[in-house]
Design brief:
The chain has 121 residues and is mostly beta strands. It has one helix at 8-13; strands spanning 22-27, 30-40, 51-57, 60-64, 68-71, 76-79, 85-100, 118-119. Strands 1, 2, 3, 4, 5, 6, 7 and 8 form an eight-stranded mixed β-sheet that branches. Pfam families: Cupin_2 (PF07883).
């Protein structure tokens, strides 16, 4: 089944836009997404699901209303469901997200930064 092997770093090299997740793989009812992040996102929540961030490169700050969580390479953080958060990155970050299929990146707020989940070719 070597045709099913996916390389996260290779997939990231094909992504040109920030804040636009791409599905790398699916497991049960969850998607493993790769994404490049830079700048500040929007404050939002995911009312029905937790959201896992795994930073591969760079430094990502996940702003919460009561504190900032700073992630570096190989760090993992789970934003609990319903917790308002706003990711930001001064320089480009490459990351993996793990969340249920159908989760919208802007959560409950929508807007111009909402992504249509892209498939990697």
């Amino acid at each position: 089944m070597s045709d099913d092997v996916r390389n996260a770093l290779s997939a990231l090299s094909n992504i040109s836009e920030h804040w636009q997740p791409h599905r790398l793989a699916s497991i049960n009812d969850y998607d493993l997404k790769v994404v490049k992040l830079q700048g500040e996102f929007v404050w939002h929540t995911h009312p029905d699901t937790d959201e896992l961030f795994l930073v591969l490169s760079g430094e990502l700050t996940i702003q919460l209303r009561d504190r900032d969580v700073i992630l570096g390479p190989n760090d993992v953080f789970v934003v609990p469901k319903g917790v308002e958060h706003c990711p930001k990155a001064a320089a480009e970050v490459q990351a993996i997200l793990f969340e249920p299929q159908g989760t919208v990146n802007t959560g409950h707020v929508g807007g111009s930064m909402t992504s249509n989940l892209r498939e990697l070719g």
